[in-house]
C-alpha cells in the first residue's frame, strides 16, 4: 500500500507541477490518456482493430490522428483504449472547434494557431487548453470519423451497415460494440471543486460557478447556476407565502400575494436571461453574431443525410432536406404524440372516475380495508402513469432522433418540448381538472400539497440516499478493482507489449470510472424544477406554502446534485450552450398561464367573493377579474420589455468585437485585391480622361488649323 | 426660348450620356452642383464667409473639402451656395458612411476605396455612386463640421454661441442663418420615375419600389412599400366586410368575421416584417450584425455633449451621460406628456357633457337653429382639439429634442410614441368611451363612420387638391423665376467672377426648387394610416364596412402621395432605415387591443346575445367571450412565432457574410501577429524541451558514470 500511495503522489505531481523528485517520471511517461473507450467484452476483433486504426490514422487519410494505447486484459476479454493526442493535434482541433480563449486585450477570441502568441497563458502550450477542452477535442475528432462510399459495414459485423457520411463511432455506440466512452476525471481538481461546492462548511456560500464551468463545461454550469438562482428566487415568495398563511383573510391580502407572485416570476425569468447572457459571454459561448451563426455551426454527429456541402461555409457535411423533416414532424411525430397525450388524459379521467366509484360503491366503515380500497385507484394511477411515462419517453427520444435535427440545440429543444407536453398532461392537467372542472378547492389543496411533498420526498430519497448508497457500493468496488488491477497488471504486462507506457494509475482510474454510471443529462433535473415551478406558481393562491417547500427542497437539491455530479457519475464531455434552451420559454409559458389560473382561482374563491361588495353583480365580478388579469399580463409584458436581455457591458464588448471584425474584413478585402491593379486602373482612367481632353484640344486645334489654313489661304 | 430649350438638352445629356455634340460642354463644365444652400437674405457676410470657407477647407484643417460656388444676386441680397465635390471626396465619404454596393460576388459590401475594383459598375467612378448617395455624402460632410474649443460663436452673430462638438450647419439652420438646404432633383430620372409611379396608365400596377429607393432612399421607399402592402392587405377584410354587411345575422357570421379580422391583422403585420427585412437586405441596410452595431453607428448631427470618444470604435464623438437622458425623461417628459393627455381626455369628457347638455337644455323644434345648436359642441370640440393638437406636437418635438437621443432611429421612435399617445387619446379613447362606458352601439357606429369618412375626405382634399393647387402655383412661379433668372444672370455675371462656371441651368433649377416646400417627413403619413388601421380593426365588428372605405381611400392615397413626393416637395436627403421603426410595434399593439375590443363588442351586442342558448347564465356568457379572446390571442401569438421574421435566403446570405468576416478576422489576426515570432517561440520551446531531456540524460549518465565509477572502483 505504501508504494501505491507513493505512486499516487508521483502521478499527481506529474500532472500538476513537475517537482524535482519526479523529473524523470514526467519525461518518460508523457502520454496522458484523456478519454477511455471500452469495447464490449467479446466484441469482434476486426471491428476493434478497424476503429483503433481509424483513430490513429493521419487526418489526411480520413483518420482522427489520435494517440491510442490498447490494453486487453486476458481474463475479462475486455479491450480498453486509452486515448490521448499530441499538443499540436489538440490545438489544431481546438482551432477547428472555434474554442475561445482570452486574447491579450482581454477579449475572448477563437483560437488561432498562427496567432497563439497573442493569447494569454500560451507560454505553456501543453496546459493552454483545459483538460475538459482537450477531451472535447478528442471526442470531436472521434465523432468526425465518417464512413466513406466504400465502407458499407463495420468489419466483423456485416449486418451493421454504414452509409456514406454516417459517424462511425456513433454506430459503434448505438450497436453496443463500444460499451463505454468517457473522459477521465482529474482527481485533484475534482477534490478541490467538491470542497468548495458540496461540503457542509460551504453550505451557505454561492456555488463556484466559474470552476464548475471549467471542469464540467458551460451546459452543466448553466444548469447549476439556474438551479441556484431559481432556489434563491423562491425566498421572497416563500416569505410572503408564510405571511399570507398567518394573516387574516382580506381582499388586500389576496391581491397583494397573487400580484406579487405573478410579477415576481417574470422578474426572476428576465433576470436569469440577463445573467445567463453575461455568464455565456464570459465563457465565450455568446457568439458576436448570435443571430445567424447557426447556419455555419457544424451538425451533430448523429445527423445523417447524403454528403453535400454547407451552403454557407462550403465545407462538406451531410445534407438532409428540410421538407423531409417537416413531413416527418407532421405525419409521424404529431399524430403519435397526440395519441400518447390523449391516452394520458383519459387515464387521468379514468382515475377520477375510479376514485369516485370506489368512494360510492366500496363498503365504508371497514377501517383499514376502506383506506386500502380508497387508496387503490391512486396506487393504480401512479403505477399506470409510471409505465406510460417510460413508454412515452422511449417514444419521444426515438421520434426526436427520427426527425434528424441538424444542430444539437435544435435536437435538445424538440426533445424538451416533447417531454414537457407529457408532464403537462400528467402533472398539471389533473390539477386544472380539479380546479376548474370539479371546482373542488379543498381537493385542489390536498392534491397540490400531496403531489409537491411526496414528489419532493421521493426525489430527495433518490437524489440524496441513492448517491450515498452508490458511494458505499463504489467504495467496495474501488477495493475490489484495486486488487483486480494489481492482479491483472502482472498478466497484461506479459501479454501486450504496446501498452507498457500507459501509467498504472491511469489504468486503475479507467477501471474505476468505467464502473460508474453515465450522467443522464440535465433534462430530468430541469423537468423536476419545471414541475415544481408549476406547482409553486400556477396555483399559488390555493397553496401559498408551496414556495417554502420548494425552496427547502432546492437548497438540498443543489448539494445532492453537485455531489452526484462529482462522485457518482462518469465525467461527461463538456457541451457548449448559450442559454438553457427551450426551458426558458417553457418556464415563461408557465408564468403566463399562472396569471390566468390565479385570477380564475381567486375569482372563484367563495372567501374572496364574500369580501367583494355584496351589491356587485356576478357579471361585473367576472369582468373585474378579467380586467385584473389583463392588467397583470400587461405589467408582465412591460417588465419583460424593460429589462434588457443583454447587460450593457456585454453589448459594448460584443460591439467592439463586431467592429474589429468589420475593420479586419475591410483590411482583408483591400489586401486581397491587388493594389497595383487598382492603381493601374486609376492611371488608365486618368489617361483616358487626358485623351478626351487632348482629343477635344486636337479638334479645337484642327479647327484652329483649318482657320489658320483658311486664313493662310485667304491672302493667296 | 429656343436657346433655353437647347441648353436644357445640353445639360441633360451632359448629366446622362455625353453625346458627340456636347463633348466640349462636358469637359469644360465638369462642376455639377449637388446640394443647394441658401443663406437667409440679409444674413451677416461674416457668417456666410466663415461657413463657405469651412465647407471648402481641407479635411485635415477640420473642413469638409467640398467644391463650393457662390452666387449672390445683387437685387435680392440672397447668397446661394452650389455645393459639389470631387469624385475622390465623394468616394472617401461613401466609404466612411459605409454605403453598401454590389460586390463582384453579388453580395452587398461596404464600399472600400482600396478594393473598388471588385465592386460592380466601378468602371466609371463618376457614376459609381447614385446622385442621391453623393448628396448624402455631401450632407454628411457638412454635418460633420463641428465647433472646436476656440470657436465659441458664429462670426457676425456673437450671441449665437457654439460649444465644442456642436454641429455648425445645424446651428446655422436652427438660427435660420441658412434658410434652405436641399439636394437638387434629377429632372430626367424623376420624370421617368413619375411615369411609372403615379400616372393613370400605371394605376393598377405595383409601385416601382426599387427605383423609388434609388431616388428617394430606403426610408421613403419603405413608407411607400408599407402603404402599398397595407392597402392590398385591406382587400380581404373589405370583401368579407361587404359579405358580412349583406348576410343575415348569425352567431357563425359574427364569429367568422371577427376571428378573420383579428388574425388577419397579425398575418399582415408579420408578412410585412418579413418582406421589409428582405427589402432592407437587398438595399444593404440590414447589417450582418443587426444586434449590436448601433453602438458604433455615428450619432445624429443634433446630438450634443462634451467631446469624447466612442467606447467601441474609439473615434471622437460627443458624449452625453445616459442618466441625464433618463432623468430628463422621467422628470420632464413624462409629467408634461401626462398633463397634455389628461387635458385631451377632459376636453373629450367636456364635449360629451356639452352635447348632452345641449340636447337636454337647448330649445328643440326650431329647425335650422336646433341643428346649429346641436352641432355647436362638435364644432367647438373639433376646433379645440385642432389647437391642442398643434400645441402638443410642438411640445412633443421640443421634448424629444431636449431628450438628446444619440441615434436618429431612437429619436424617431421616441417621437413616434409621443405622437401616437396623443392621437390615441384624441381618436380612440372617445370611441372606447362610447363603446364601453356609454355602451351606445348606435352612437359608436355613427361616430366611427363619421370620423372615418370625414377624415378621409378632408385628407384626400388636402392631399389631392392641395397638390393640384400647388402645381398651378408653381407653374406661375416657374415662369416668374425664369424671367427673373434671365434678368439677374446678366447682372451677376458682372458682379461675381467666381460663379461663372455654374451652369445657368443649375441656377434656374436651384431657384425653382428653392421655392418648393420642404418634405415634412413620413410621420404624419404613418399616423394617418395608423388611425385608419385603428378604425378598421379596433371596432370592425361594429362597423364592418370600414375596411372598404379605408381600401378605397388608400388606393388614391398611394398615387397622391407619390405625386406630392415627386412634384410638390423639395428633394429630401435620403435616409437609411431597416424597418418602419416604432410604427411596427405600434400597429401590433392595435392588433392586440383589437382582440379585446372586438370580443367585448360582440359579447355586448344584444343581437349576438339573442343568438346564444337562452338558458345560458350571464356569467357563463362572459366566460365564453373571455375564453374566445384568450384563444384568439394564443393563435395570434403562434402565428407571429411561426412566420419567421427573416426569409431563409436572407439568413443564408447574412450567415455567409458573417462567416467571411470571421474568416477574415482570423486571417488578419494571424497576419498581424509576427509569424516569425511564433516560429521562434516554438523553436525556443522545442529547445527547452530538448534541454530538459538532455538534463535528464546527463543526470542519468551521471548516475551511469557514478555506477561505472563504482563499477570501476569495485574491481579495484
Automatic annotation (TrEMBL), chains A, B:
Keywords: Membrane, Transmembrane, Transmembrane helix. It comes from the Eukaryota. Residues 212-656 form the Anoctamin transmembrane domain. Coiled coil: none annotated. InterPro entries: Anoctamin, Anoctamin_TM. Residues 1-23 are annotated as: Disordered. The keyword Transmembrane applies. The chain crosses the membrane at residues 220-246, 252-272, 329-354, 374-395, 415-438, 535-556, 577-603, 623-643. It is a multi-pass membrane protein. The keyword Transmembrane applies. It is found in: Membrane. Pfam families: Anoctamin (PF04547). Belongs to the anoctamin family. This is Anoctamin. It comes from Aplysia californica (California sea hare). The gene is LOC101850164.
Amino acid at each position: 500500500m505504501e508504494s501505491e500511495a507513493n505512486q499516487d503522489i508521483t502521478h499527481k505531481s506529474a500532472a500538476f507541477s513537475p517537482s524535482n523528485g519526479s523529473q524523470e517520471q514526467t519525461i518518460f511517461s508523457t502520454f496522458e490518456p484523456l478519454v477511455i473507450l471500452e469495447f464490449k467484452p467479446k466484441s469482434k476483433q476486426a471491428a476493434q482493430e478497424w476503429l483503433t486504426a481509424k483513430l490513429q490514422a493521419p487526418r489526411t487519410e480520413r483518420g482522427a490522428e489520435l494517440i491510442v494505447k490498447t490494453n486487453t486484459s486476458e481474463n475479462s476479454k475486455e479491450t480498453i483504449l486509452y486515448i490521448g493526442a499530441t499538443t499540436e493535434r489538440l490545438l489544431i482541433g481546438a482551432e477547428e472547434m472555434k474554442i475561445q480563449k482570452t486574447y491579450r486585450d482581454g477579449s475572448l477570441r477563437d483560437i488561432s494557431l498562427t496567432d497563439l502568441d497573442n493569447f494569454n497563458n500560451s507560454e505553456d502550450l501543453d496546459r493552454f487548453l483545459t483538460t475538459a477542452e482537450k477531451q472535447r477535442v478528442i471526442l470531436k475528432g472521434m465523432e468526425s470519423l465518417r464512413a466513406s462510399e466504400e465502407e458499407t459495414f463495420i468489419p466483423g459485423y456485416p449486418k451493421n451497415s454504414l452509409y456514406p457520411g454516417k459517424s462511425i463511432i456513433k454506430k459503434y455506440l448505438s450497436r453496443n460494440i463500444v460499451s463505454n466512452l468517457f473522459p477521465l476525471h482529474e482527481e485533484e481538481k475534482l477534490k478541490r471543486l467538491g470542497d468548495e461546492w458540496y461540503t457542509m462548511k460551504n453550505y451557505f456560500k454561492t456555488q463556484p460557478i466559474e470552476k464548475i464551468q471549467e471542469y464540467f463545461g458551460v451546459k452543466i454550469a448553466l444548469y447549476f447556476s439556474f438551479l441556484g438562482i431559481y432556489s434563491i428566487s423562491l425566498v421572497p415568495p416563500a416569505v410572503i407565502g408564510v405571511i399570507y398563511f398567518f394573516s387574516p383573510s382580506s381582499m388586500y391580502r389576496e391581491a397583494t400575494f397573487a400580484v406579487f407572485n405573478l410579477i415576481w416570476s417574470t422578474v426572476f425569468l428576465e433576470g436569469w436571461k440577463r445573467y445567463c447572457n453575461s455568464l455565456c459571454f464570459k465563457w465565450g459561448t455568446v457568439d458576436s453574431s448570435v443571430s445567424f451563426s447557426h447556419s455555419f455551426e457544424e451538425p451533430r454527429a448523429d445527423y445523417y443525410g447524403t454528403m453535400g456541402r454547407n451552403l454557407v461555409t462550403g465545407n462538406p457535411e451531410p445534407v438532409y432536406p428540410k421538407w423531409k423533416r417537416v413531413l416527418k414532424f407532421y405525419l409521424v411525430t404529431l399524430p403519435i404524440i397526440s395519441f400518447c397525450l390523449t391516452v394520458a388524459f383519459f387515464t387521468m379521467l379514468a382515475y377520477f372516475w375510479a376514485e369516485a366509484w370506489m368512494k360510492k360503491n366500496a363498503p365504508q366503515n371497514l377501517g383499514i380495508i376502506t383506506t386500502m380500497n380508497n387508496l387503490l385507484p391512486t396506487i393504480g394511477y401512479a403505477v399506470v402513469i409510471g409505465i406510460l411515462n417510460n413508454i412515452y419517453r422511449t417514444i419521444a427520444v426515438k421520434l426526436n432522433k427520427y426527425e434528424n435535427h441538424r444542430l444539437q440545440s435544435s435536437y435538445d429543444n424538440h426533445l424538451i418540448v416533447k417531454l414537457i407536453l407529457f408532464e403537462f398532461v400528467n402533472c398539471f392537467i389533473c390539477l386544472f381538472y380539479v380546479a376548474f372542472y370539479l371546482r373542488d378547492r379543498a381537493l385542489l389543496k390536498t392534491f397540490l400539497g400531496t403531489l409537491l411533498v411526496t414528489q419532493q420526498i421521493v426525489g430527495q430519497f433518490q437524489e440524496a440516499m441513492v448517491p450515498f448508497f452508490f458511494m458505499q457500493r463504489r467504495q467496495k468496488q474501488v477495493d475490489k478493482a484495486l486488487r483486480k488491477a494489481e492482479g491483472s497488471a502482472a498478466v497484461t504486462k506479459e501479454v501486450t507489449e504496446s501498452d507498457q507506457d500507459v501509467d498504472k494509475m491511469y489504468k486503475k482510474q479507467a477501471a474505476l470510472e468505467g464502473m460508474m454510471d453515465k450522467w443522464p443529462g440535465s433534462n430530468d433535473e430541469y423537468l423536476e424544477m419545471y414541475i415544481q415551478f408549476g406547482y409553486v406558481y400556477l396555483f399559488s393562491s390555493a397553496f401559498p406554502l408551496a414556495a417554502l417547500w420548494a425552496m427547502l427542497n432546492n437548497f438540498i437539491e443543489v448539494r445532492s446534485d453537485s455531489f452526484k455530479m462529482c462522485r457518482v457519475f462518469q465525467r461527461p464531455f463538456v457541451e457548449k450552450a448559450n442559454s438553457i434552451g427551450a426551458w426558458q420559454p417553457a418556464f415563461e409559458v408557465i408564468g403566463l398561464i399562472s396569471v390566468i389560473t390565479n385570477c380564475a382561482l381567486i375569482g372563484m374563491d367563495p372567501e374572496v367573493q364574500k369580501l367583494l361588495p355584496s351589491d356587485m353583480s356576478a357579471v361585473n365580478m367576472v369582468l373585474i377579474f378579467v380586467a385584473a388579469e389583463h392588467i397583470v399580463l400587461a405589467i408582465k409584458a412591460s417588465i419583460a420589455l424593460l429589462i434588457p436581455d443583454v447587460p450593457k457591458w456585454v453589448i459594448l464588448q460584443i460591439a467592439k468585437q463586431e467592429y474589429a471584425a468589420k475593420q479586419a474584413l475591410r483590411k482583408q478585402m483591400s489586401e486581397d485585391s491587388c493594389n497595383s491593379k487598382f492603381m493601374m486602373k486609376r492611371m488608365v482612367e486618368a489617361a483616358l480622361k487626358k485623351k478626351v481632353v487632348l482629343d477635344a484640344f486636337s479638334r479645337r486645334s484642327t479647327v484652329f488649323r483649318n482657320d489658320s489654313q483658311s486664313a493662310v489661304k485667304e491672302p493667296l
